[in-house]
Amino acid sequence: MRLPSRPAVIAALAIVALSSCGTGAPAGGADVTLVIAANSISGGKNAESADWIKRWVIPGFERTHHDVKVLFQPSGVDDEQYKTMIALDLKSKAGADIIDLDGIWVGEFAQAGYIKPLVEVGGPAVDSWEGWSQIPQAVQGLGVFDGKKYGLPQGTDGRVLFYNKTLFKKAGLPDPWQPTNWEEILTAGARLKAAGVPNPIQINAGTAMGEATTMQGVLPLLAAAGSEIYADGKWTGATRAMKDVLGFYQRLYTSGLSDPKLQQEAKGRDKSFAQFAAGKIGILAESDYFWRSVIEPKTGVAPMADRDSAVGYAEIPAENPGGAIRGQDFASMSGGAVRVLNPFSKNPRLAWELLAFMHSAAATKSQLAGQARISSRGDVNSEVLTADPMLKYIADKVLPITAYRPGLAVYPQVSVALQEATAAIVSGKSADEAATTYQTELEGLVGGADHVTG
């Protein structure tokens, strides 16, 4: 990572850094000061998180640790600015004791030596923490790099296939619907097309959709074909699984089951949301964000008054049963943030106690503030999601089988290469042609053929 000078960044951000790893002047006679850093700020970006830290976490922890003073270092800036600031702090062996990171940064920070595995910093208490048994192994993967746990996952999400029950009934398709392979998705699309549905299947493609193409389309399908984009130190190139993914896209467009123009428009994703809400799309691949924020009946950006009765959801099936990653029948992808320990903290054991407290069941439930949102903890999800069957479905069925993007610096460029491969399919290229071009581009991005499986 090429970073600007520290003075320039601090001046640009207009942030007063607390950069002595919890050694600021203790208040009220406390012997130790711990600092929490997050890209959230009251009245601004991620305000709910900032308010929770100040109003619940800090007083709650200080009540049971009378010799500890906890401070909060807020930010409310662009994610890349926040990332740069945190990287500068850690590079100079400074910064807060507990730090919020996007899960996709974990590998990059680990490779740079900016963060260490939790157990190396927090000690043996890390491995015996009660919370591990409540976080599905797949969800723990958000904070894992090279098999080691670097961070505790916060909330997460999952990808599924949403479908319009009214259109399914018109096409003579079953409800509930759960395809067991890709062929059954295509068959449903053909039935919807025959019933006059304008856009039978919407799975994001192309560069205009940006990361939504990669996360809602390519990577879930790749996992369903039995592969991940990065595994065992190598990137996935033009493998059988990748060619099968691109071949699936090719069948969508050569069969007229997807609208190519929608993938090429600047606001194509937003238009797909509006079209689904208007009953013009039969099947749409998205995350639970689509359910809780897009088609939410009262406050959604494309509200559906009859969402609860008109919209169904199904897991993304393996290409063939048992053919997904880990031998699964279904696959998904997830994203989210983690909290890590600063390896240069002067009070690492206490910092772990604070981090564990922030991820306890009580703290997690408190942060939700009565909202139905998916947390990383199964015990909390079981309690707070009972009123929302869709989110409970994600927590119970999807999170245990999910996967995550690799947290490496080159990933965003690899993602663009994947988007370009699907764009080539949309414009009429064959799967083999798109895969060959992708392989060449990938090798140039990641340092040559030795770093690519294909």
Which band does the percent of strand residues land in?
Answer: 5-15%
Helix content: 40-55%
Query: Per the principal axes of the C-alpha atoms, what is the gross shape?
Result: globular
* Oligomeric description of these chains: single chain
Q: Tell me the CATH superfamily of the largest domain.
A: Periplasmic binding protein-like II
Alpha-beta classification: alpha/beta
- The CATH architecture of the largest domain comes to 3-Layer(aba) Sandwich
The total tally of domains equals 2
Q: Main sheet, how many strands, which sense, barrel?
A: 5 strands, mixed
Q: Roughly how many Å is the radius of gyration?
A: 23 Å
Unreliable residue stretches: 1-20, 22-28
Could you explain how this protein is built, in words?
This protein has 454 residues and is of the alpha/beta class. The chain folds into 2 domains: 207 residues, 3-Layer(aba) Sandwich (D-Maltodextrin-Binding Protein, domain 2); 218 residues, 3-Layer(aba) Sandwich (D-Maltodextrin-Binding Protein, domain 2). The protein is built from 20 helices and 16 strands. The strands form 5 sheets. It has a 5-stranded mixed sheet with strand order 2-1-3-15-6. It has a 4-stranded mixed sheet with strand order 8-11-7-12, with helices on both faces. A hairpin with a 2-residue loop joins strand 9 and strand 10. The longest helix has 18 residues. The radius of gyration is 23 Å and the shape is globular. It starts with 5 loop residues before the first helix and ends with a strand.
Annotate the secondary structure layout.
Elements: H1 6-13, E1 32-38, H2 47-64, E2 68-74, H3 79-91, E3 98-102, H4 106-111, H5 118-122, H6 137-140, E4 144-145, E5 148-149, E6 151-156, E7 159-164, H7 165-170, H8 182-194, E8 199-202, H9 211-224, E9 230-231, E10 234-236, H10 240-254, H11 260-264, H12 268-277, E11 281-287, H13 288-294, H14 307-310, E12 311-314, E13 316-317, E14 330-331, E15 336-341, H15 348-358, H16 361-368, H17 378-384, H18 389-398, H19 411-426, H20 431-446, E16 452-453
Parallel strand pairs: 1-2, 1-3, 8-11, 10-16
Antiparallel strand pairs: 3-15, 4-5, 6-15, 7-11, 7-12, 9-10, 13-14
Helix pairs in contact: 1-3, 9-19, 10-19, 10-20, 19-20
